Amino acid sequence: MTINMPGVAATSTTHDFAGVLFDFDGTIIDSTEAIVENWRRIGEEIGIDHEVILQTSHGRRSIDVLKDLDPSRANWEYISAMESKIPSLCKNPAIEIPGARALLEALNNLYTPWAIVTSGTKALLNGWLNVLHLPRPQEITVAEDVRIGKPDPEGYYKARTRLLQHSGEDDIKDVLVVEDAPAGVKAGKLAGCSVLAVTTTHTVDQLKAAGADWVIPDHRFVEVRRKEGLQGAFTFTFNSIY
Q1: What's 232's domain CATH number?
Q2: Is 49 one of the catalytic residues?
Q3: pTM
């Protein structure tokens, strides 16, 4: 699903952060086919072409999508039950974004604080983590935890606050958000974070227009190590920046 941008000059840069907040679908995994299949099934139930639903559903909470299309189903009981079935019932499982697993394992090995901030429900997130056997974050912020979904910054702001709650006065306070969608990029910036975007679902221009600080193809172009001489800081190198 990576959108290639031939002929675009790429460079590298290095920055220090206290931790990382990841979006999930489109950033760590690609569940496009499963999501399309799910909305096709829901569309048949509510009498709306799933292609119409898909025009506005990416990166948004299902409850917000259904508030517009069928308010009677816009409740957490229905949404959680619906999304809990996606990882096991859909014919096409999700795939990992290139380099995602290796990056998450590297963060765990370095004891780097990291969290997932997703527009999906807890049931959906746990389902995919179990099916794909991915590393688990120290913290999660899911659809049920916020009043308003992305591009509202509430989810990233809450996660950033929790990530920094044990930091000392002299510790680094910069937090990195990793996103794939313009709505998420905007949310990360509004939450006071730097944003690294991957071109898995949107173009470089779309991500830059949303405010991304750096744009790379995928996680294979990220390196991380402990910051020497500074406790609680980690040095990230982004390669092949567009």
Answers
A1: 3.40.50.1000
A2: no
A3: 0.90
